[in-house]
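Before relying on records like the one below, remember that each one covers exactly one chain. Contacts with other chains, cofactors or solvent are not represented anywhere in the record.
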Amino acid sequence: MDKFDMIIQNGRIATAGEAYTADIGIKDGKVACVAKRLERGTKIIDASGKYVLPGAVDIHTHIDAPLHGSHTLDDWYQGTCAAAFGGVTCVVDYPNQIKGQSVRNIIEQSHGKARDKAVIDYSFSPVIVDRTEAVYAELPQLIEEGFPTYKVFMAYDFKIHDEELVKLLDVIAKNGGLLGVHCENDWAIGYMADQLVKAGKTQPKYHSVSRPPITEEEATGRVLRIAEMVGAPVLIVHVSAKGALREITNAKSKGVRAYGETCPHFLLLDENLYDQDVSEAAKFVVTPPLRTKEHRKALWNALTAGTISLVSSDHCAFSLKEKLRLGSDMFTKIPHGAPGVETRVPLLFSEGVAKGRININKFVELISTNPARLAGLYPRKGTIAVGCDADILILDGNREETISVQGLHGACDFTPFQGYQVKGWPETVISRGRIIVDKGQLVARPGSGRLVKRNGFQAF
């Protein structure tokens, strides 16, 4: 073979199924060879003592998005820079449709925002808000063109009703796509919130009181039963409650192609964080809300059991200033969301692999392989094999860092993990054979990321 463009030598390669020491030869943006020893590379990277992993894939972000009466902070340069420093080489974002807008226009508009700014690869899972006959009619062609995944909310003023949900699940499934669903019973939450506000209970701690675990459990069960009825696969996004896990387990036992996603904040943070002054508590207002220790324990168990298939960030960065401007005197007005695309990988490695909760193969499965499978990116992305994109994360499993907002690269003025001690940190990040982060330095140009067309959904 001609000289490789790059060789990564001596690293401990880990995929979802294997772990071994070998060299990787990269040519024309692809993995060209994996062998015990390779030489003749234009660039040689010595990864001795490091993990060499598939680049992380994050399929739950809200970048440059109007949401919750506000707008998320990161543009596509800031958001993808943060992702790259966090070991992520591809994001699949959730842009929101507005009334009267076609789904195709959502994709075109979002691509216009990202095209000249993104430093990593990207695609879109539009949030379908306006469920018109015209929208149902355009989905088959969009799925065929490489956009197979979509999302709906069962909460907020753009929530989906059951008669729309059954049709959308059916249409998307019959054309080879996958629907993700935010599961909360909005009617019950609205009643609970009204009662609390009338009683003068307006502090952030009542955010979780108004959205108890059973509202997530009920909505999850309802979605899964509808999916069972029409034979559709479904992704339950950002699972936080053990009751929702039971519903997913029961659905799987009946043959439903049900997939659960959770996020680092549900694995690591506690609802007690709401019981402090609003200037701090507002940082943790996400939906579903943070839960108690018993729910966190159930989520960790679900990772190893396979009930949870992936860990995403749900990166939704509003400034603390904006959260307080809108909701300092009323928990119902605080924008829901927090940054997380840069901290997802080191947190899950540190709390999962370094602490012995999961092994390295499960880690890769959760942060790269399964997200790629669900999004229609696999095996182009999400693994290390000859012919796949050379999206590679070199991670130092022994490096210890303290997470702080000052050391992160997004636009947000806080991180919910301020002061967290982690062991394991992304060192070098490679996208399609080009180094984008090299030992703490960004070396990618704005606009060097590409829009990725994807395959139809395949169950796993």
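The longest strand covers residues 4-14.
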